[in-house]
Design a protein that fits this description.
heterodimer; A: 115 residues; mainly beta; seven-stranded mixed β-sheet; four-stranded antiparallel β-sheet; 48% strand; B: 111 residues; 10 strands; globular
Chain lengths: 115, 111
């Protein structure tokens, strides 16, 4: 079974440029998460979707970040314009809820470098 | 308050030794606790979880201990192998809320 797929794996852009990340969750998973992971830190939730609905976006900086999950499957996360401080790994995860094990399956992440 | 176990950012062990990784959590209302393993260039991978009504749970070569009195969680890895080298994160979750990850511990296993 294929895991969570993310692309691109690496992205280098100059500040003030836009950037987009794509995530394909595990087939059948209704819940999708975007996390930000700074170097040496644990992942921090940006947004959580249940099917097409964003149910928790309280930590998403909405002035520059946006996300969508059309049709409740794939998702994109966009930053416009990017800032130097946005350099990090952006992780996508998915799960099938309800889930007694609270298990989320993570993709490999997209490493963003903003110059 | 202080946690019993000291969080160490790095832990170095010899192959075959037992490893203990500690974590202090913050939310008394958390009812699930999870350990994740993250290898270089990969996303975190679920290892084991424990509910707040338990104080110990065992898996294959891993044991998680929960001490709610001092809000402390530990992961024990038996007979540590080079393939166990990774960053380990604990995470806590209150029902209906998001996972909150703690500080990672980098485990290095030398043969």
């Amino acid at each position: 079974e294929a895991g969570v797929v993310q692309s691109p794996r690496y992205k280098i852009i100059e500040k003030k440029q836009p950037v987009a990340f794509w995530c394909n969750p595990i087939s059948g998973h209704n819940t999708l998460y975007w996390y930000l992971q700074n170097l040496g830190q644990g992942p921090e939730l940006l947004i959580r979707y249940e099917n097409e609905e964003a149910v928790d976006d309280s930590q998403l900086p909405k002035d520059r970040f946006s996300a969508e999950r059309l049709k409740g499957v794939d998702s994109t996360l966009k930053i416009q314009p990017a800032e130097l401080g946005d350099s990090a790994v952006y992780l996508c995860a998915s799960s099938l809820e309800p889930n007694l094990r609270n298990e989320q399956f993570f993709g490999p992440g997209t490493r963003l470098t903003v110059l | 308050g202080e946690s019993v176990g000291l969080h160490l950012p790095t832990l170095s062990v010899q192959e075959g030794d037992n490893s203990i990784i500690n974590c202090a959590y913050s939310n008394s209302a958390s009812d699930y606790f999870i350990w994740y393993k993250q290898e270089s260039g990969k996303g975190p991978q679920f290892i084991i979880d424990i509910r707040s009504n338990m104080d110990k749970r065992q898996g294959q070569r891993v044991t998680v201990l929960l001490n709610k009195t001092v809000k402390h969680l530990s992961l024990q890895i038996a007979a540590t192998q080079p393939g166990d080298s990774a960053v380990y994160f604990c995470a806590e979750k209150e029902a209906g809320t998001a996972l909150i990850f703690g500080k990672g511990t980098t485990l290095s296993v030398s043969s």
